[in-house]
Amino acid sequence: MSNKKILLTGGSGGLGRQLTDLLLSKGYTVNVLSRGEGKDKRVQTFKWDVSKGIIDDVCIDGVDTIIHLAGAGIADERWTDERKKVVIESRTKSIELLYDLLKRKLHQVKAVVSASGTGYYSDRGDELLTEENPPANDFLGHCCVLWEQEVDEGKQLGLRVAKFRTGVVLDKHAGALPRLSAPIKFGFGAALGSGKQWIPWIHWQDVAGIYLYGIEQELEGVYNMVAPNPVTNKQLTKHVAQHLRRPLWLPNVPAFALNLALGEMSTLVLGSTKVAADKIEQAGYIFKFNSIDKALTDIYGR
């Protein structure tokens, strides 16, 4: 059990709530930064407004580690120039606001553990990607580079910094899986594009588990946060259909149709990102769900 205090940004999202549950179960005290009133009585919620540069200075009192999850949803809205700005600044300006607070107030923060994304690599075909690969030259790659650069500013404050490039998080109630499973449930499921594009998936329990592991083992640097065995879009679609006990009979959704419907954002479903989990495994993390079948069995209960 631990008596450490964690400050969590992005705590109101699905992952934030799951991670809060895990941290509290391990004896941590959790502070949450939020724009609204906190609904979880087990944690202390402090107000901030990143766009206005407002933050409650008391939020860092007694805090040992900051976990930075805050950021506007990548797939929530079409990528207009204005939306791209919101997506980037929700990640960069938020950690900048926290670092400004650390510069002007006495504190005992020692570490920052931050989300990033496998969008850093973006669409790379069949290439197996490690943390050493360069970023993609597109919006997703650019966003992740700026995000990680801003987080790395914590090193100038003497902080230990860890960044987790998170893949497609499998959760029954949030993210990509409900969107994928909805048409399958009604008998209209189909692979997207060629279906050969790689999906760097990870079960939500392993996401929370890696954050906890990163804190407790004092990890530093950048790690891919993906399961060890990536699957293609077609393979994932087939596995979900099998677990939902629904047939797949439709042809693949054509790439041109997705490009028309989604524009530049179509790279989220048509891009191929095959990501290696070797580094986090070599650091000692043991995955609870290392196969897609095991992950979906847990999620769907069959």
Question: How is this fold's topology laid out?
Answer:
Blueprint (H helix, E strand, L loop, with lengths): L4 E5 L4 H12 L3 E6 L9 E6 L4 E2 L9 E4 L12 H24 L6 E7 L10 E2 L9 H14 L7 E7 L1 E3 L5 H10 L12 E2 L1 E3 H13 L4 E5 L5 E2 H12 L10 H8 L4 H4 L3 E2 L2 H5 L9 H9 L2
Parallel strand pairs: 1-2, 1-5, 2-3, 5-6, 6-8, 7-14, 8-12, 9-11
Antiparallel strand pairs: 3-4, 10-13
Helix pairs in contact: 1-5, 2-3, 4-6, 6-10
Care to describe what's here?
The chain is an alpha/beta fold and 302 residues long. It has one domain: NAD(P)-binding Rossmann-like Domain (Rossmann fold). It has 10 helices and 14 strands. It has helices at residues 14-25, 81-104, 139-152, 176-185, 204-216, 233-244, 255-262, 267-270, 278-282, 292-300, and strands at 5-9, 29-34, 44-49, 54-55, 65-68, 111-117, 128-129, 160-166, 168-170, 198-199, 201-203, 221-225, 231-232, 274-275. The strands form 4 sheets. It has an 8-stranded mixed beta sheet with strand order 4-3-2-1-5-6-8-12, with helices on both faces. Helix 2 links the parallel strand 5 and strand 6. Helix 6 (233-244) runs parallel beside helix 10. The radius of gyration is 19 Å and the shape is globular. It starts with a strand and ends with a helix. The model has no long low-confidence stretch (mean pLDDT 95).
Poorly predicted tracts of residues: none
User: Gap between N and C termini, in Å?
Assistant: 33 Å
The residue fraction in helices comes out at: 25-40%
- Largest sheet: spatial strand order: 4-3-2-1-5-6-8-12
Outline type: globular
Per DSSP, the total helix count is 10
Task: Compute the CA-based radius of gyration.
Answer: 19 Å
**What do we call the CATH topology?**
Rossmann fold
How much of the sequence lies in strands comes to 15-25%
* Rounded mean pLDDT score: 95
Tell me the name of the CATH class.
Alpha Beta
Biggest sheet record: 8 strands, mixed
